[in-house]
Automatic annotation (TrEMBL):
GO terms for molecular function: hydrolase activity. This is NUDIX hydrolase. Belongs to the Nudix hydrolase family. Residues 41-179 form the Nudix hydrolase domain.
Amino acid sequence: MKLIEQLEKYQPVNEQEEKDKSFIISCLKQFDNIFSRENNLAHMTASAWVVNKTHDKVLMAYHNIYDSWSWLGGHADGETDLLSTAMREVEEESGIHNIHPVSDDIYSLEVLTVDGHIKRGEYVSSHLHLNVTYLIEADEAESLSIKPDENSGVKWFALDEAIKASSEKWFRDNIYNKLNEKLKYFR
């Protein structure tokens, strides 16, 4: 499987990524339905750290379920090309179309806990998102639009302001700071 090959080549930047890489690969080998929400324990997701052309701003959406500003992304829903998933989610969640990956390589890895919640009137049990993140560049002059069933705002933030805008402490401290730090390798 192409994704397993990409994951095996990926060089973790810290212990979190090292352990999460191992866990994600294990799940990919163990579960046939890992790219589908039918797997109630864990499923593959893709996120995008969307930056402007000068890499000094990041695009975030106000995520209704989590009541927080956050990165863009979503479920694979059967798609095994997670870069395509990330690109699709950026377009759906922000309304922008002038986007491209800075690299086809994986930018970051995370195993994310998702608390039980109501989505489209139905209860979704707590589960894990096996998340692959890509670095995406976008034109910050392009018009933004919300996706009302998922977010209530889309906005460009200075890198440090993006972290402060999130109300999710674990994401601020462990994910968003890491993503911003990695940007220095792409300037």
